[in-house]
Design brief:
Elements: E1 6-10, H1 15-26, E2 30-35, E3 47-50, H2 56-66, E4 71-74, H3 91-118, E5 121-126, H4 139-159, E6 164-171, H5 177-182, H6 194-205, E7 216-219
Helix pairs in contact: 1-6, 2-3, 3-4
Length: 223
């Protein structure tokens, strides 16, 4: 599926990033992992770049130095809850937008010029099923992920006639160690496995999804 394909995965050090990198490599891709983790190399990647994706100048310079790539998977992001929508404190709000929206926008800005020049490319973003509606004590996260989803649709409309596919997956709860630790009494068998979500991401990043534009694809497991 990914023979002679170079894929950039942001957030490559996390559970979903690792699962996606592993799946992409097994399908033949050359995987460039990007994350803020301080390491010389990263499992399941062919090349690892340590980068603060919230730094726009550094991100644009990094992508310019990569050469031609075929797909960008924007996994970098995070989750937080607790603040109420009426809470005057801005810390959580700003943080959710920085790590979920700014990282995606900066990486996309870096990748799109190359995609346009070569007349092809794919971008896969990570939305959230829960952000389809507002949730109590999760306003910052829901608004940030809603922005990712609307940006996905807008980018698709702007880029689809230039040979570039832009889509997003909307997972429910992903079965990761932090989520298990945070919800120890939950039925983990109902959650989406990172490997399952990675399969959908790789499909959307591949030529097999060339007719799919602006999709917000729920991947909800049994929740």
């Amino acid at each position: 599926m990914f023979k002679n394909t170079r894929i950039v995965i942001t957030g490559a050090a996390g559970a979903l990033g690792q699962a996606t990198a592993k799946q992409a490599r097994e399908l033949g891709a050359h995987v460039i992992g990007v994350d803020i983790v301080d390491a010389q190399e990263l499992p399941n990647t062919d090349h690892y770049i340590r980068l603060d994706l919230m730094d726009r100048e550094a991100t644009l310079a990094c992508f310019k130095s990569m050469g031609a790539i075929d797909a960008l998977v924007n996994i970098a992001g995070g989750f937080a809850m607790g603040s109420e929508a009426s809470d005057p404190a801005d810390e959580q709000w700003h943080w959710m937008f920085r790590i979920n929206v700014d990282t995606m926008r900066n990486a996309t800005m870096g990748a799109v010029p190359g995609f346009v020049a070569q007349g092809r490319g794919a971008i896969v973003n990570i939305g959230a099923l829960g952000a389809l509606s507002g949730q109590a004590a999760m306003s910052a996260y829901c608004c940030a992920k809603s922005s990712v989803m609307k940006l996905t649709e807008s980018l698709s409309e702007e880029l689809k006639r230039k040979g570039i596919n832009v889509n997003a997956v909307l997972p429910s709860i992903i079965d990761t160690p932090p989520n298990r630790a945070g919800m120890p009494d939950a039925d983990f068998s109902q959650w989406v496995k990172p490997e399952q979500l990675a399969q959908v991401i790789c499909f959307l990043a591949s030529d097999a999804a060339s007719a799919v534009h602006g999709a917000l694809l729920p991947v909800k497991g049994l929740v």
